[in-house]
Amino acid sequence: MSNMTPVKGKEQPGLRYPSNGKTIYHRPLNRAKTSELSQASFAYLFSEMVGYASKRIVSIQDLEKRLNTQGHPIGLKLLDLLLHREPARTQTRPLTIITLLHLIKQQLWTHLFGRAADGLEKSSDPARPDEYMIIDNEPLVNRYISVPRDMSQLNCAAFVAGIIEGVCDGSAFPARVTAHSVGKQQAAPAADGEEGGEGKEMWPGRTVFLVKFQPEVLERESFLAKG
Amino acid sequence: MSRGVIALLIINKAGGLIYNRTFGEGLNQLNSNDYLVLAARLNPLREHQAAHYYAQQQQQQHHHSASGSIGAGSGGGQGGPLPSRPEPPSGLEVMETENFRLQCFNTQTGTKFLLFTDTMQANVDVAMRKVYELYADYVMKNPFYQLEMPVRCDMFDRKLNSYIREINNSR
């Protein structure tokens, strides 16, 4: 019956440990050094994620919702990690909308994409003071994605919107975050000449992340400003 | 008249045309059906060549075993050195005419790239590699592209256009 006993060190299906026994949980949390991943492997992984999310969907909104749901837990967890990596005196969670958005624009973006976001704006419409916009000229997730014409309102950066939403929710600023492509509309007036019209579209993949905070967040904000 | 890169065709492994684009103005266009026929014609050309090659190989081996039947029988196919089996021919690689030069490139997975350039164009290999790279990036990494189906990717079009324009203008 000796052949029935499991061989020592036999590979367990599904779980694999590195040979030195050090998993990701053994690494220190405060690595200042940035660790980079292959963009190609991320592109293939993300492509499969989009493929998975687009199974049996009824609408584009449905697909964006699913991508958003995939990103949300990442944001929740990243908030903790990013705050932990901050210098000790600024290690508090953001208390105002501006500091929160600044954290997203700087720390979160640098951690995820290796650079800060390209812009941060408040909605100019006085009727909607709860809306803020984070702008990325060329989202890394959309680098290799061409959206078919029949799905033109889709933006796969909805996944990143989910991450932002997770960070906002985690720091007690509940919000709805959606991703919108604005490259085409903005470039249209610029493309006046016949030749090279396409080349003039500086940022065809320009994406705006619309952050819409819940009313209670603004209520608290105004209360804090007075006091 | 110098034109540089004139056209690019991509043919899938079944011989169907999945991408077709011409660069530069003033070219007479084929109608789309003619393109499909052209692509379908180019593909079997390669298959025929390979089939012909294998038929030749088998004939040669047959001759060998007939003349040296004792060695083959006693060795049982193990003792003697294995018959060398070189790579099959890759099919049509280059075709030069008075007006253009056709460069072919077959990927490992059977996709075929055809690049039409003018006869004076240098470094076609480099251009071909770059086109393949763009294809691998902007077509294969696109979640909405279905394998073996016609390529309709805006990003691929855009990047290809700017790359080809760059080579054509640098001449």
Structural description of this entry:
- The complex is a heterodimer of chains A (227) and B (171).
- Chain A is α+β, with helices and mostly antiparallel strands and 227 residues long.
- Helices cover 39% and strands 11% of the residues of chain A.
- Chain A has a four-stranded antiparallel sheet with strand order 1-2-4-3.
- Chain A is globular, with a radius of gyration of 21 Å.
- Chain A starts with 38 loop residues before the first helix and ends with a helix.
- Residues 186-200 of chain A have low confidence and may be disordered.
- Chain B has four helices and five strands; from the N terminus they run ββααβββαα.
- Chain B has helices at residues 32-67, 69-75, 124-138, 154-170, and strands spanning 5-11, 17-22, 94-96, 101-106, 112-117.
- The A-B interface holds A 40, 43-44, 46-48, 50-51, 54, 144-148, 151, 156, 198-199, 204 and B 137-138, 141-145, 152-156, 158, 161-162.
- Chain B: Keywords: Endoplasmic reticulum, ER-Golgi transport, Golgi apparatus, Transport.
Give me the strand/helix succession of chain B. Answer: EEHHEEEHH
Termini separation of chain B: 12 Å
Structural class of chain A: alpha+beta
The class by helix and strand makeup of chain B works out as: alpha+beta
The protein's oligomeric status is heterodimer
User: How many runs of DSSP E, i.e. beta strands of chain A?
Assistant: 4
By DSSP, the count of extended strands of chain B is 5
Strand order of the largest sheet of chain A: 1-2-4-3
Give start-end ranges of low-pLDDT stretches of chain B. Answer: 68-77
The profile of the biggest β sheet of chain B is: 5 strands, antiparallel
Radius of gyration of chain A: 21 Å
